């Protein structure tokens, strides 16, 4: 088998509209398609970043919470590349999102900062 690329990332949100606004308005994803799946009582949105990366955003009634910390097994975090981590951190904080302190990757020395989406999913901004 030869994996060609990462196809999509799927996120289940407790409040579909709130998370859709976060990923679109705050992080710059573009909603390309949206479907209501009546048999599941579930929304599915396909959000693209720069026409390449796809985030599938779902809602499911009564989805159980998932532990994401401290350092729980499974997906650790999603990281997004930005040109200026400090400026992006300031923009997030101005919009009311709490961020950890700016730090530098000890291996690459690039700036990075961690924050969370509306459901507490750990996210990272990493210097491009």
UniProtKB/TrEMBL annotation:
UniProt GO molecular function: metal ion binding
Keywords: Metal-binding
Gene3D superfamilies per UniProt: 2,3-Dihydroxybiphenyl 1,2-Dioxygenase, domain 1
Endpoints of the signal sequence: none
Ranges for domain VOC: 5-128
Superkingdom: Bacteria
PROSITE patterns with a match to the protein in the record: VOC
Classification via PANTHER family: FOSFOMYCIN RESISTANCE PROTEIN FOSX, LYASE, PUTATIVE-RELATED-RELATED
Protein name in the entry: VOC family protein
Source species: Subtercola vilae
Lineage, opening ranks: Bacteria, Bacillati, Actinomycetota, Actinomycetes, Micrococcales
């Amino acid at each position: 088998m030869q994996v060609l690329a990462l196809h999509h990332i799927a996120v289940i949100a407790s409040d579909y509209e709130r998370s859709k606004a976060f990923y679109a308005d705050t992080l710059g994803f573009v909603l390309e398609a949206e479907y209501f799946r009546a048999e599941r009582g579930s929304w599915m949105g396909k959000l693209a970043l720069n026409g390449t990366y796809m985030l599938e955003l779902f809602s499911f009634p009564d989805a159980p919470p998932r532990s994401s910390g401290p350092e729980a097994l499974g997906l650790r975090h999603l990281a997004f590349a930005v040109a200026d981590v400090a400026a992006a951190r300031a923009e997030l904080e101005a919009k009311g999102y709490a961020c950890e302190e700016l730090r530098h990757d000890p291996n690459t020395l690039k700036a990075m900062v961690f924050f969370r989406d509306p459901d507490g999913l750990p996210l990272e901004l990493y210097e491009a």
